Amino acid sequence: MKIRLTIAAAALGVAAATMLGLAAATPADAATGFPLPNYNSGDCLGILGGADDAPAVQWPCDGSANQTWSYGSQDGDTGYYQLVNGDGQCLGVLGGSTAEGAAVYGWTCLGPTHPDQYWEPVESAFIPDYHYLVNLNSGLVVGVLGNSTAQGASVVQWANQDTANNQLWESLAAAASGPPVSQPAG
């Protein structure tokens, strides 16, 4: 049985500071963020070891800073936002790749010159309260490699498979002051 987690909104001050390049989120900001549990596994999206320049993995949700996300800057008016964890890392794609299967990583937040660090939450038409995370640079979505439910399984980008449950992440829409969530194409 899946347990729905309540998500807190990101602090506006952190988002504004990140957008201006004045400060990155700090571990103390983790308390204002939200987890990103995967529908298929129930595990949360996090950055391995909480280290900068490290791969994204799924791991049992424990509220740690590397699994606690908030919205950073928006890329213009595109609807794509940085996802910044409590360790101050932005979710991005290794090497800015546009290829299917490219690894998703935690990096230093680099701003609009790195479109691989911007994501749009798009509501699932199949499973309420779950969303795809669409990358601005590639148009691909975040998913767990091989549909794995194992702890530490790699997170990669792939074409949206619509019903692939490993590509769905819980309740971004519930973040009251977060970005608007796009509706699925109908």
Task: Tell me what you see in this structure.
The structure is a single chain. With 186 residues, this protein is mostly beta strands. The chain has a single domain, classed as Trefoil (Acidic Fibroblast Growth Factor, subunit A) (Trefoil). It has one helix and eleven strands; from the N terminus they run H-E-E-E-E-E-E-E-E-E-E-E. A four-stranded antiparallel sheet has the order 1-2-6-5, with no helix packed on it. Strand 3 and strand 4 form a beta hairpin. It is globular. The protein starts with 11 loop residues before the first helix and ends in a 16-residue tail after the last strand. The N terminus is likely disordered.
- How would the global form be characterised? globular
Distance between the termini: 29 Å
Classify the oligomer. Answer: single chain
Q: Which residues sit in consecutive blocks of at least 5 with pLDDT less than 50?
A: 1-31, 173-177
Gyration radius, in Å: 14 Å
Strand order of the largest sheet: 1-2-6-5
The assigned CATH architecture is Trefoil
H/E topology pattern? HEEEEEEEEEEE
Number of strands: 11
Number of discrete helical segments: 1
CATH topology call: Trefoil (Acidic Fibroblast Growth Factor, subunit A)
Calculate the mean pLDDT score and round it.
80
Q: Give the amount of beta strand, in percent.
A: 25-35%
Q: Major sheet, described briefly? A: 4 strands, antiparallel
Percent helix range: under 10%
